[in-house]
Amino acid sequence: MRPVLSLFALAVLSVTVAPSPPPGPRYEHLFTLKPKEGVFAYARISPDGKRLAYASQISARPSAQRNWSVTAVDLPTGKTLFTENGIDAYWSNDGTRVIYAGMGGVTVRNVETNAASAYPQASGLGDYFSWAVRDGKEMIMTIQSNYYYLGKDGPVLPHTRVTTCEGIGTGERPLISHDGKRVSTFVKGILVVRALDNCAGIVNTHIQGSKADFSWDGRYIAFHAVKSAGTGYEIRIVDLEKKTVRTLPNLPGSAFFPSWTKDGRLCFRYDGPDYRGFLMASNVLDVPEAPLPTATEALPDERRWEDIFPETAPAKGLRLVLIWAPWSAHSLEAFTNLQEARDHFTSRGVPVDVVAAADPGSRESDIASQLEDFRVTIPRIPLSPPHLAMTEARNQMPTTLLFRGGTLVESKLGAQSFETLRDWVLSAAEKK
What we know:
28 strands; five-stranded antiparallel sheet
């Protein structure tokens, strides 16, 4: 006699087991941008992932003042916590405060109470801040490789500089780890991780990337880099212990400036055909890893005009080239100061040609719109994705290049002041 299955057994057999979700990162739409909102890529997530601070453009018209605002948003409610003229916000380790460059100088604002204090005495030490706590003391790092502690009355001055090491110097444009012991920095365009105050444990990634944010345990750094096809930017994660690298997949658009939450997620700006705003990525360490490159991507010691801009004839004398991107919060400042410098040279008979080239990974509609908004009168020249790789603009937008007779003399990362451009060109002109 055949055994009879119970109704319960039949029900169990008929259940279809749902497949487990595929391994890999999951992306969540965190904060959507308005269609024409002038929000830039530079943004930071709070340690708990519940608040976002970002830079936006107040007015697109050139001005003697910085026309940017810092806005902090409470993500669960969508409530704006504050908006103030300024740029380059970074969260404290406890997530209660942000530091940014405001109208009154270096500004620290408590987002819980909305109380803010400005410290103009520290403004000359640089902006683009990062915040750490070392040995129980709060520490601020600036773009100029300067750092200082925060006391109850503000910055404790005089400041200190990152230690100089043989072969790499101090590095350029650093971000500090949350424990205040290491910095990510650039050495000849290459992303390097080093100790803040000694020369032990240097990690050369051999990668040309952007500023790298440290995970909260200090083991990983995340940054954006140009895609191999040159069609935009992707997020890469370097494991500093295993010396491996991961690249976040399935992002057809451009991803910029990642920042870590304490629980290991990554927030970043995304600009793609399907979505423009901020994404949150979880399970990022599920991505397969590969060994770090062993051969450096360092740029050659000598670069000629045709190595970077073969579509445009070289100038016989001096030529300044601004490489910029519409997603950079510093593009307006760069164009304003460059146009002032060009007019200064013209009025004084200083022979220098001034042109600009846009990031080839950005949308042409964004480029054209910003050029119109900025009322740019500087001629634009073409730049292709492969030739972008021959410039330091892979590390920092904007970047300015100075050529003499078809040979690159020097490059400077970031938006340059009128005074810097003036002195730079005049010094080069005297060396003919």
